[in-house]
Amino acid sequence: MGRAPCCDKANVKKGPWSPEEDAKLKSYIDQYGTGGNWIALPQKIGLKRCGKSCRLRWLNYLRPNIKHGGFSEEEDNIICSLYISIGSRWSIIAAQLPGRTDNDIKNYWNTRLKKKLLGRRKQQQQLHHQHQQSPDHQGSQAAATVEHDHHHHQDHQQSPTSSLSNSALERLQLHMKLQTLNQNPLLHNMLWPKLHPFQEKLLLQAMNDENSNNNIMQLPLLPQPIMMESPLSNIGKEIMINPTNIASHETMAMTATTSSNTTTTTTTTNGMDHSNCSPSMMNNNNINVSSYGGAFQLGGGGGDDFMMGNLDNGTTSSLVWWSNEFETNDVHYDRSGSFSSSSNDSSWDCALRSSDDAGLF
DNA sequence: AATACGTACAACCGCCCTCAG
DNA sequence: TCTGAGGGCGGTTGTACGTAT
């Protein structure tokens, strides 16, 4: 038996909110708050809406200081960097952009930013698709579709790249594209994390697979990226982060030292088992942080791990775990959680992503 | 002017997680 | 320890609006 619905679907209004409904909801919340119970709220104020719908309307539209549209170049960069690092964790990405909602960013990414950054690939696909649709290609296309299905069913036994989700592949492609942009001196103030050689290999293989997969997609290979050092390295302050107790099942402690003080922070890890945690992460006693302007990256002290993030006026930083640590195609690190730290002269929030995204991380 | 097509975005759906009882 | 309600979140859909034909 499925779970009970949160509201009586037959008696709730759906679709766009009217100004009257908005006013009712806003004035109530302004006056009394949400009361910690969204489900009961619409009944209290006489709205024929689902509680979840009220919550969404408030969070995405009525809440004070919400910005709509007009994304700046800087916001684009942040979204892009974070998307590459952590994927579609829109709520985490939104947390780094004051006034932006996860829904807004998600829509912006899906409808505009992605196209802006990966536009050329889409165009190629579209052109090729049109080509495939032409009458003299109908037969071969049908055969290709069957073959494609066949490949799909065999995904798990096929090449390493077949285990990559579309999202992961998209992120890798985006990453490589931006790596090449990084070579443009005009864009040196943008920070994109380095690809692990294995990630590069996966991506190139994926693209080659696509090319050879019955010509379903004819993609030009992107230029081979040059693994360049971040222009930010060796500039700015240095923070030493000492991950300890990382093998603990429940908590992870990190000690961060800036030039003027030391902060220890503990994270909850949702009970995740860290026994499979990357050895290099566990053994990393020192992670060097370089920062400059509005961005920074943390390079792994002994392994290939590093973090990246953005600084806000030098007082607040946000870190996103970026691990290049994987050796096998089906690697699965149960590593997830988030933590934060603050001190007199620095503070940050950090997200550790789980690595179950098609073996990419 | 009418229609088709594309784009942007608000809103919904349903799964997952947390936590109180 | 178990259960279920509520909240959070990512994916998807619906629709209004703009542009091309």
TrEMBL record:
Keywords: DNA-binding, Nucleus, Repeat, Transcription, Transcription regulation. Pfam families: Myb_DNA-binding. This is Uncharacterized protein. It comes from Linum trigynum. It is found in: Nucleus. The keyword Cytoplasm does not apply. Residues 9-62, 63-117 form the HTH myb-type domain. Residues 119-131 have a biased composition (Basic residues). Gene3D superfamilies: Homeodomain-like. Signal peptide: none annotated. Residues 9-62, 63-113 form the Myb-like domain. PANTHER family: OS09G0431300 PROTEIN, TRANSCRIPTION FACTOR MYB36. One of its GO terms (molecular function) is DNA binding. The keyword Cytoplasm does not apply. InterPro entries: Homeodomain-like_sf, Myb_dom, SANT/Myb. GO terms for cellular component: nucleus. PROSITE patterns: HTH_MYB (PS51294), MYB_LIKE (PS50090). Residues 119-165 are annotated as: Disordered.
